[in-house]
Amino acid sequence: MALENDPRFNPTSPLTLFERSFYMGPAPNPQYDVSLDGQRFLMIESLQRSESAEIYVVLNWFEELKRLVPTERD
Question: What is the DSSP letter of 37?
Fold first, then answer.
């Protein structure tokens, strides 16, 4: 919301500042900051979750590691 105070307090219509989705995090800690020069907001952008996310499970990964990176001791 924009504010005007001349000659008296007069709130105006809300303004959209950001179109993207940003990480909100747990309350009450703010998840943003303002740059030292006061000209920019610093925020963490939220990742878009994909429905096709993949998880790789490697069984016996020590054996797989030995196969991929052989040592002279074997």
Answer: T
